[in-house]
Amino acid sequence: MRFRAKIVDLACLNHFSRVVNTVARLAKTCTLRLTADKLYFILSDKVANGGVSVWCELCQGNFFDEFQMEGVAAEHNEIYLELVPENLSRALKTAQNAKTVKIKLTNKHCPCLTVAVELPSLSSSSRIVTHDIPVGVIPRRLWNDFREPGVPDFDVSIYLPVLKTMKSVVERMKNLSNCIVIEANLSGEMNLKIETDLVSVTTHFKDLGNPPWASDDECQSSAQGRDLESMAEARIDIKKLLQLLAGQQVNPTKALCNSWTAQLCCMNVKCFAVQIIYRTCLEPLSRMKGASQVVVYVTIRTGV
Amino acid sequence: MRCVITGGNVKVLGKAVHSLSRIGDELYLEPTENGLSLRAVNSSRSAFASFLFVPLFFQLYERGSPPRAGQHFRCKVLMKSFLSIFRSLPSLEKTVGKCLILLKPQASRLVVQLHCKYGVTKTHNLAFQECERLQAVFSTRQCANSLCAPARVLAEAVVHFPATLSEVTLSAGPGGKISLRNYVEDEKEPGRTMVTELWLAEDEFQEVAVAPGTCITFCLKEFRGLLTFAEASNLPLTIHYDAPGRPAVFTLDDPLLEVHLVLATLSDPESISQSPTANGASELPTPADDFADDLESYMIAMETSAYEGGSGAPPSPTFPLRTPGPAHSEPEEEEEEEAVPGTPPHKKFRSLFFGSVLTPGGPCLAPTQEVLAEDSDGEY
Amino acid sequence: MPLSTQPPASGERYVLTASLDNARHLSSLLRAVHFQDHATCFATANGIKVTVEDAKCLQANAFIQAEIFQEFAVQEESVMFRINLAVLLDCLTIFGSSSLPGTSTALRMCYRGYGYPLMLFLEEGGVVTVCKINTQEPEELLDFDFCSTNVVNKIILQSEGLREAFAELDMTSEVLQITMSPNKPYFRLSTFGNAGSAHLDYPRDSDLMEAFHCNQTQTNRYKISLLKPSTKALALSCKVSIRTDTRGFLSLQYMIRNEDGQICFVEYYCCPDEDVTEADL
């Protein structure tokens, strides 16, 4: 098992740390899956009710100048590691003006993901900082626990409003209530609602737009033929939603287009999950082949 | 004692108090003929700091006449109270034009008066306690190793460590390279802590006079406090150290100001060689092996199936517990030492044997007590 | 639609309707008196007074004159209700408390009368929030009977000069002692804490002093915990008037200028803590 990667480009480094920060805010520990082309940060919260799961997929070619990996065996050319994303986030935090960042798998006192940072200094030679992040190597028999989530059967899929506004609304609502109701329809309307003995508050967003999904996809069946006006609703833990919104570093300077989509998944009228999909595209950098897209799927299941 | 501080020096004094407040809960004030000395020691007596402001620092400095039998007056005040006067450094700079400190033992008065913008005066009458001299016994001359660097270089080095980190290990590698590494305490769960190590090249320092292979482990919090002061004052910082277990002395030199920070160091060299990143064959820590580009360096053999039990925990390093009694059976000191609630994990550090030094040159240290470093300054 | 997002037309039967193109003008004043969650609102044709009290010793009033609102109508001689101030503030700032230049939250507020909730309609950038806040039975308010004919000493200061002093008050002191005198020390704030005592002296000829009318030397003590909340009003204000009457009652009036240059007032009344004998001084 071998892994070694290198980032030179500062924009790529910055973007990569933002993704890692996002993951770190959502999960205490997560799984890092490495394949020849991609990196994945995966969190599958096994809590039955109200759990959060994260699936974050990155194309290595969009971030790394070098990327070499060798999995357990030729036919299973993958590596699964368990790590504390906060450690990786911390290591990258002080690397923002680095000349080079190298990330590799090492075996020190324990298996480690070693982040070696070359920093500019006032003298002729660079400063070198290394961070040995302990990792757990996940045996192959457990790999099945980290399957890619299937595209869920959803009733309504809608683009989310400007994140700053939504975050502010959800923050205030969190002061007033523990759970929030999200309602959305196929006419681009979404409502956020709370209701307690003291107060009821509803915020109405309109003209948000619904993403055009490929119509031949059979899992879209629930959305097909649905009354455009009728609202699908989900009741979720407001803290979990805020954690997601607050965790995102809303800094659109580098990102050309960010889009957030919420998918309300219902089953027998009753909604069981809200999936929030975050897509971001970096400004195409000269060395990049295409647009660099990062997709983060966050699923918040509703408490029953 | 009566002194007047004006202009930017008020802020310098304020910053010094901020720095001292990282050390201890009490501030010791001592007017001497060489200037006003402010000192602090931490509760486990493993850290001591002193700031001596020379008479030139002041617009006016009157030490006052010795009240009785050549004995000069010294006192201590609650750090919190003194700090609150200088709490906001920006407003100190913006509004305070002049600061007057008045110590009148006969009248039981310690007054700090700030003359501010718009003719406003703030007068603080502080409660104080008369006390013995607070003195750490140390000597920079007995330290075999010394390093000097601009404060900024060291400040930029410590940002890589989390604010919660308690101890850091400084080691001298080959070729004058200096490394800083977070000290990982007797790990209960090996492989849970991230190890961060930073290497600085010799030419980042103004002076490197260290023996390769030497290393010391000391508390980061107090060091950070001094760095903040040194960085703001744009002063180079010198680190003097000897063998592990012997105190390390951090000094700043300025024509108007002498600053000493004395920190106990971990006494067990075993713990250093056991530390995770240095488990290579080499005795000396080798810098930058993680940065080598050769393919071999990243090839490690790890069987996914094999790694489940986890490796056997390394034997926890042990440290000799040394809790020397106070140098004198001076009741007040003793009481105080007992009153200190649960001194944090610094037990493994040797206490810095302060004692209350009553008479200069007198039998100030009990013969049974090990003197780790002699006081070299004639004044003391 | 189950719930109309449109504010009701003026013709409907509301005893109080008000609209404001920048909700922050209201929320910042309310924040200046937010030290207890319950507030009593009292509206007349002149505007709204929001009163908050603590420990029968402290009363704070925020006055929002009718002119501050773009539309303000009270159908009865006076309208009074009690409301949870924390909830009201969260609702008023639903789109964020620090608005960017060029954006502001428009507000329309309606109250149908006793037993009905206070309705808020807020709009920013095309997004609408509707809030229904339940109201409660108003309670009787304290009457401090502070009348200007009984005022002994009065000082008007630029707030800047007091802000730092209040921010740095030694909270280990139980009281804040205020001395006002035609002679030295003119105006003195003192605390007596664990650390010792501290005195802050303002000369009468200081540039901070806008007016100085002291007739006799008066030294009174006030519970520092009661005065601390007034720091919020101080932070917003440009001038503060400090008055004491023959009984030693303290009145602090804060003049607050909003972003549009309109002036509002917040006032705090506080009972003295104890009689100070000459020996204490």
UniProtKB/TrEMBL annotation, chain A:
Alphabetical UniProt keywords: Nucleus
Annotated organism of origin: Apteryx mantelli (North Island brown kiwi)
Database matches in SUPFAM superfamilies: DNA clamp
Family from the record: Belongs to the HUS1 family.
Localisation: Nucleus
Gene3D superfamilies listed in its UniProt record: 3.70.10.10
InterPro entries: DNA_clamp_sf (IPR046938), HUS1 (IPR016580), HUS1/Mec3 (IPR007150)
Pfam families noted in UniProt: Hus1
Gene from which the chain derives: HUS1
Principal subcellular localisation of the protein: nucleus
Protein name: Checkpoint protein
From TrEMBL, chain B:
Bias-annotated ranges (Polar residues): 269-280
Residue span of region Disordered: 269-290, 306-347
Superkingdom, taxonomy of origin: Eukaryota
InterPro entries according to UniProt: DNA_clamp_sf, Rad9, Rad9/Ddc1
Transmembrane spans: none
Pfam families, A to Z: Rad9 (PF04139)
Record family assignment: Belongs to the rad9 family.
Protein name in UniProt: Cell cycle checkpoint control protein
Organism listed in the record: Apteryx mantelli (North Island brown kiwi)
TrEMBL record, chain C:
Assigned protein family: Belongs to the rad1 family.
Primary localization: nucleus
Gene3D superfamilies for the chain: 3.70.10.10
GO biological process terms on file: DNA damage checkpoint signaling; DNA repair
GO CC annotations, alphabetized: checkpoint clamp complex
Oligomeric and partner information: Component of the toroidal 9-1-1 (RAD9-RAD1-HUS1) complex, composed of RAD9A, RAD1 and HUS1. The 9-1-1 complex associates with LIG1, POLB, FEN1, RAD17, HDAC1, RPA1 and RPA2. The 9-1-1 complex associates with the RAD17-RFC complex. RAD1 interacts with POLB, FEN1, HUS1, HUS1B, RAD9A and RAD9B. Interacts with DNAJC7. Interacts with RHNO1; interaction is direct.
Gene source species: Apteryx owenii
Matching SUPFAM superfamilies: DNA clamp (SSF55979)
Localization, UniProt: Nucleus
Protein name: Cell cycle checkpoint protein RAD1
Keywords annotated in UniProt: DNA damage, DNA repair, Nucleus
Keyword set includes DNA damage: yes
CDD domains from the UniProt entry: PCNA
UniProt entry tagged with the keyword DNA damage: yes
Functional note: Component of the 9-1-1 cell-cycle checkpoint response complex that plays a major role in DNA repair. The 9-1-1 complex is recruited to DNA lesion upon damage by the RAD17-replication factor C (RFC) clamp loader complex. Acts then as a sliding clamp platform on DNA for several proteins involved in long-patch base excision repair (LP-BER).
Listed Pfam families: Rad1
